């Protein structure tokens, strides 16, 4: 029972620090750093409490999903990191593609101007 209570407390504290990090303005560098550090500490505590309650491995993930309707913190955090990385890769790909298309359009315009200059 105390493991469940400490897991709930740890999740509450983690949610607080994650929300605080999101709410703080960009210029509040020290406060944001503190919030990120505290969120990381509480994420570790939540992970440890979940391991104590559910164990480790794929069975623990499925058990937590079945019992609570949520995946363990490590899985959730890894998924969020993967989504952020995927977003950055997609934005980079769009920028590279747009740059390539712009260069291609400039080359096409230059070729047309050269062809028109040769005809005139």
What is the typical, i.e. mean, pLDDT? 88
Portion in helices:
over 70%
What class do helices, strands and sheet pairing give? mainly alpha
SS element count, helices: 4
Number of domains: 1
Give start-end ranges of low-pLDDT stretches: none
Q: Could you state the order of secondary-structure elements as H and E?
A: HHHH
Strand content: under 5%
Categorize the overall geometry: elongated
Radius of gyration: 25 Å
Distance between the termini: 89 Å
User: Would you count the extended β strands for me?
Assistant: 0
Question: What composes the largest sheet?
Answer: none
Transmembrane segments: 52-69, 89-119
Keywords: Membrane, Transmembrane, Transmembrane helix
Describe this structure in words.
- The protein has 120 residues and is mostly helical.
- The chain has helices at 2-23, 29-54, 58-68, 73-119.
- The mean pLDDT is 88.
- The relative contact order is 0.07.
- Helix content is 88%, strand content 0%.
- It is elongated.
- The termini are far apart.
- It is built from four helices and no strands.
- The chain has one domain.
- The chain crosses the membrane at residues 52-69, 89-119.
- Keywords: Membrane, Transmembrane, Transmembrane helix.
């Amino acid at each position: 029972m105390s493991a469940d209570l400490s897991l709930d407390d740890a999740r509450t504290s983690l949610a607080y620090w994650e929300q605080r990090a999101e709410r703080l303005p960009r210029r509040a560098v020290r406060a944001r750093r503190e919030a990120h550090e505290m969120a990381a500490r509480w994420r570790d505590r939540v992970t440890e409490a979940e391991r104590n309650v559910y164990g480790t491995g794929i069975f623990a993930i499925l058990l937590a999903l079945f019992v609570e309707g949520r995946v363990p913190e490590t899985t959730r955090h890894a998924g969020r990191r993967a989504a952020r990385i995927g977003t950055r890769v997609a934005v980079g790909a769009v920028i590279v593609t747009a740059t390539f298309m712009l260069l291609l359009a400039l080359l096409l315009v230059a070729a047309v101007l050269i062809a028109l200059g040769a005809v005139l």
